[in-house]
Amino acid sequence: DQQVKQNSPSLSVQEGRISILNCDYTNSMFDYFLWYKKYPAEGPTFLISISSIKDKNEDGRFTVFLNKSAKHLSLHIVPSQPGDSAVYFCAASASGSARQLTFGSGTQLTVLP
Amino acid sequence: NAGVTQTPKFRVLKTGQSMTLLCAQDMNHEYMYWYRQDPGMGLRLIHYSVGEGTTAKGEVPDGYNVSRLKKQNFLLGLESAAPSQTSVYFCASRVQGYGYTFGSGTRLTVV
Asked: What is the phi-psi region of residue B7: left when phi exceeds 0, alpha when psi lies from -120 to 50, beta otherwise?
């Protein structure tokens, strides 16, 4: 049973427009959420995170929104650039000594020039 | 500063063979993790370690063993490889309160 779900395997967006990537979770113990970006043949790299005590976090072109009641988070990229084309993974963790991450299955974002 | 280094980057094994994947980090991180990535399934945790000499099972530990004899190294072993273990393996490390740093991965094919 997947505790973190990314229901859209792929998304295509025109350069300059907004990209919205969605993620749902089922485990109410999750209190920290992250987005990772992955290019082919490379490891995932950290993009942005949000604690469950917040509902929004911004970093430049990237904003993450958290809706705890709906157990839903989203990543907004504005404006989208061709270099943003990558696989985006949503991840979540619960408090504990190891803070293991539980990942979604990923969304392939393609930004068209 | 190399970060997290995984060796080898690619490997082809025959069913039943054994091998060890090495993860080395030079950031003095306490926590280390091994994940596998399969198509449509994201990354799944195999084993992890909260410090030198300690290891614990993750979500998909069967068929794998690990060791953390030195703080900077985390080894993942396959004693008898099976085709189901064909995957891309990622190692990660972190320090308390900070995010994960991932290696670039090992692509393993078991035939």
From this structure: beta
pLDDT digits (tens, 9 = 90+) for A56-100: 999 999 999 999 999 999 999 999 999 999 999 999 999 875 788
Are residues A103 and B4, on separate chains, in Cβ contact within 8 Å? no
B45 touches chain A (CB under 8 A): yes
Q: How many whole angstroms separate alpha carbon A53 and alpha carbon A9? A: 29
Provide the Cα torsion A22, B105, B74, A50; round to 10°: -20
How far apart CA A45 and CA B26 sit, in angstroms, is 17
Q: What is the pLDDT along chain B (111 residues), one digit of tens a residue?
A: 579 999 999 999 999 999 999 999 999 999 999 999 998 888 999 999 999 999 999 999 999 999 999 999 999 999 999 999 999 999 999 977 668 999 999 999 999
Instruction: Please compute, for residue B59, the number of CA atoms within 13 A of its CA located in the half-sphere on the CB side.
Output: 17
- Mutate which of B54, B100, B102, B106 to test chain A, going by most A C-beta atoms within 10 A? B100
Residue A82 backbone zone (phi > 0: left; psi -120 to 50: alpha; other: beta): alpha
